[in-house]
Amino acid sequence: MTRQAIVPKELQSYYSDWKMAPGLISGQHVFLTGFTGTDPGGNLPEDPEAQIRNAFEKIGLVLREANLDYGSLVEMTSYHVGLRAHLEVFKAVRADYVVEPYPAWTAIEVAGFVQEGAIVEIRPIAALD
Fold it and tell me: Looking at residue 2, what is its pLDDT?
């Protein structure tokens, strides 16, 4: 099976520094790395809504690099520190990005992430067809 890394220029450090592809085409799907809410400069805003939007914007970078859009998403898992504290904000922001038919979604509470202060990480899967 042929696999192809999807590496938008804005996310090149994921590939070169962390040795992981922001997205990887395998078969008829694109598997995306989990994205937290850092901004393009690597800074983490304190505002939960800003973090969540930043994560969705990074997803969009990968989708566009693969000539896809948010309508290509078929599944997403979101990991949350303080899930109940920002679930409604997450749902509202998510609604700005996902389109019908809506992707499957699982939300999981976790203890923390690599970057202190991160409250969310989103790992989606998109279909090529």
Answer: 83
Map residue 13 onto helix, strand or coil.
helix
What tokens appear for 54 in the block? Answer: 């930043």
pLDDT tens-digit readout, 28-72: 999 999 999 999 888 999 999 999 999 999 999 999 999 999 999
Q: Return the CATH architecture of domain 3-127.
A: 2-Layer Sandwich (3.30)
pLDDT, average across residues 105-124: 97
Domain ranges of the chain: 3-127
pLDDT for the residue numbered 60: 98
d(CA 45, CA 63): 23
* pLDDT of 1 higher than 80: no
CA–CA distances in Å: residue 89 to residues 12, 34, 38, 51, 120: 29, 19, 17, 11, 11
**CA 76 – CA 59 distance, rounded (Å):** 11
State which amino acid sits at residue 112.
G
- Would strands 104-109 and 35-36 be described as parallel, antiparallel, or unpaired? unpaired
Residue appearing with tokens 């976790």: 110
Report pTM: 0.96
